[in-house]
Amino acid sequence: MQCAADLHIHSCFSMASSPRMVPEEIAKGCRVKGITVIGTGDILHPEWRRMWQNTKPVDDILVIPTTEVEGNGRVHHIILLPDYNAACDLSSRFAPYSKDIESNGRPRVKLSGEEILAHVHEVGGIGGPAHAFTPYTAIYAAHDSLSSCYGDEQVDVLELGLSADSSYGAGIQELNGIPFLTNSDAHSPEPSKLGREFTVLDVTSFSVKGILDSVKKSNIVMNVGFFPEEGKYNRTACSRCFTQFSYEEASALSWKCPEDGGRIKKGVSDRAKKLSSGQVTPRPPYLHLIPLSEIIQRVLGTKSPTTRRCRDLYLQCIEKLGDEISILTTTSPEKICTINPVLSDAIIAFREGRILLHPGGGGRYGSFEIVGI
């Protein structure tokens, strides 16, 4: 069977997270979105772990114990665990090396990537780099290779992050055989955040073990996520004024913006090109999606996808048509037209690829236009 899995989110105990990031709201958001497998995120946090353990199981949504930690060099690592006992064990193992493991949803652990993964493997989990290409807190920001971070320890997965798709890693030879995950990294249960990226897995058993086995065996049907240009670090750009530069221009300027003296941050696109050998390894298909709420925002011409008008139309779509993923990918235009004809036209345009992208960079998200809408 196939399932849509978002395996990297955060809790109300993480910095900059919504207080609504609690199990009940997350489960509700999964149903609205069409996500059938959700990672807990932040499972090393004792209170968050208790909240999930005390939450009544949901028949149609499978919960996987997951977390993200920051190791040496500010590298972030994504971790998937077989059960809550393993999470408790891992928390105890990390505690001597962390000052905030009981207070921060995403703790800082004073260990190398190799040491972190060794502990993860010893408790039966799997792991690897989180948002691997971002210019901050990522493996390819601090290292030029997996081995310089993880040593001889097996890297089980690599999370692409919001500023990259599979094509960014397909030309990097050391990643051959390592499955790519796409996850939302959501700090809010809003439909524009939760499930904005996910991985379609082929599983033999709808269970935690089935999911972990599927990931380890790279049984990935499809990666689904943003156009990478929408990410806020996609292009090389000034982190103050967001002026974009080619890699050659930035290098010639010693990575200092001539406009305001701000620091120029290397974009994910340029970083991936530098790491690539040019020989592309085939990967599962990558489906680029735009959140329905953002398409509705363009249709209604509002400043935000969270305005009341946008919310009302979004909820009307969900109530009448089903989950968001289905609406974006398979629901017939005729059915969508009964809700809003212009929205139907916009979704047709999106499906046909009539999207004009304005790449992000330097910390500012990219944007898009729907041609003809």
What is the name of the CATH superfamily of the largest domain? Metal-dependent hydrolases
Number of strands: 15
The helix/strand series, from N terminus to C terminus, equals EHEHEEEHHEHHEHEEHEEHEHEHHHHHEE
The average pLDDT value, as a whole number, equals: 96
- How many domains? 2
Radius of gyration: 20 Å
State the name of the first-level CATH class of the largest domain. Alpha Beta
State the distance separating the first and last CA atoms. 37 Å
* Main pleated sheet: 6 strands, mixed
Q: Strands of the biggest beta sheet: in what spatial order?
A: 3-2-1-9-10-13
Q: Within the CATH hierarchy, at the fold level, what is the topology of the largest domain?
A: TIM Barrel
Low-pLDDT runs of 5+ residues are none
Instruction: Tell me the fraction of residues in β-strands, as a range.
Output: 5-15%
Q: What is the general shape?
A: globular
Give the % helix. 25-40%
CATH architecture label name of the largest domain:
Alpha-Beta Barrel
Helical segment tally?
15
Structural class: alpha/beta
